[in-house]
Design brief:
This protein is of the alpha/beta class. The protein has one domain: Alpha-Beta Barrel (TIM Barrel), CATH 3.20.20.70. 42% of the residues lie in helices and 15% in strands. It is built from 12 helices and 8 strands. Strands 1-2-3-4-5-6-7-8 form an 8-stranded parallel beta barrel, surrounded by 7 helices. Strand 6, helix 8 and strand 7 form a beta-alpha-beta unit. The longest helix has 16 residues. Bound molecules: orotidine-5'-monophosphate. The site of orotidine-5'-monophosphate (OMP) has 21 residues, from strand 3, strand 8 and helix 10. It is an enzyme of class 4 (lyase).
């Protein structure tokens, strides 16, 4: 199945554009998880699997962020694989890796994500040039989310500065992606921070068909109302990510997974006006 079709079906089946971010920070895990398990690997694996079970009814996608798994050391990739394997088949799985490197290295990143972890999509950083996307572009069942206008303050350093005749580098990246999409089998999408919603419109206008990964609601305080305005005419399907705001909603309660489910349900409902345009 081509990526966009799977994306469309995942959003339609859950009636949700929510993406649950799996950012398992050992310090923030609920007390019952810390007490029940000995090793960091067991704690993270159990925590992520319960988060997946309790939030799956409310989301279309999961985004494991590799940093949190790599931080476990040598066994981190094993845990990542277990977590990915636990995600229901009909959900989109995005490996948040923000990779981007020269050809042979990119080929090996591609091997890792497409052939070994078998995720649906990956986040890529375009700073080393658009050639770094090439290795990922050959598979129509996959999606690529390229950093375009990130949610953090550092977006000011490059992405919001004028570049190559465009008012911002973000607009240039979006424009280039709309061109590159013409000869890419994989779907080329963009990462746009929800915290940048008020400035996102010109970027989105450069690439209306581009699917979007939108982090920054929840813990980073991005406004869903502003986001809804920015997305009004956008055709590419958005996945709106919240990590900490959902997965740590239960803090230390015994029934923490119920709190996590509630937080996901609330976020799904907050996104309903956006979701309605894509189902
Ligand atoms: O590519 C990303 O997912 C990403 C891009 C961006 O511009 N900002 C951003 O916060 N992210 C990721 O999205 C997640 C946001 O987490 P919360 O702020 O806890 O919801 C983290 O995994 C970040 O690494």
């Amino acid at each position: 199945m081509i990526y966009n079709q799977k994306l469309q079906q995942a959003v339609a089946a859950a009636k949700s554009t929510l993406c649950v971010g799996l950012d398992p920070n050992l310090d923030l895990l609920p007390k019952p998880v810390k007490q029940q398990f000995e090793t960091p690997e067991e704690k993270v694996s159990h925590f992520c699997k319960l988060v997946i079970d309790y939030t799956a009814p409310y989301c279309a996608a999961f985004k494991p962020n590799l940093a949190f798994f790599e931080a476990l050391g040598a066994n981190g990739f094993q845990v990542l694989q277990e977590v990915i394997d636990h995600i229901p088949e009909d959900k989109i799985v995005i490996a948040d890796a923000k990779r981007g490197d020269i050809s042979s290295t990119a080929e090996h990143y591609k091997k890792s994500f497409w052939d070994e972890f078998e995720v649906d999509a990956v986040t890529l950083n375009p700073l080393m040039g658009f050639e770094t996307l090439d290795a990922f572009k050959k598979d129509e069942t996959k999606g690529i989310y390229v950093l375009a206008l990130t949610s953090n303050r550092g977006a000011e350093d490059f992405l919001k500065k004028p570049f190559a005749g465009f008012p911002t580098m973000a607009q240039y990246i979006a424009h280039q992606l709309s061109e590159k999409a013409k000869d890419s089998k994989a779907h080329l999408g963009m990462v746009i921070g929800a915290t940048q919603a008020e400035e996102a419109r010109p970027v989105l206008n450069e690439y209306e068909q581009g699917s979007l990964l939108i982090p920054g609601v929840g813990a980073q305080g991005g406004s869903v109302a502003e986001l809804a305005k920015a997305l009004k005419t956008h055709k590419g399907i958005p996945l709106i990510n919240s990590s900490r705001g959902i997965i740590y909603a239960g803090s230390d309660e015994g029934d923490w997974p119920e709190h996590v489910a509630d937080a996901a349900k609330k976020m799904k409902h907050q996104l309903n006006t956006i979701t309605a345009s894509y189902v």
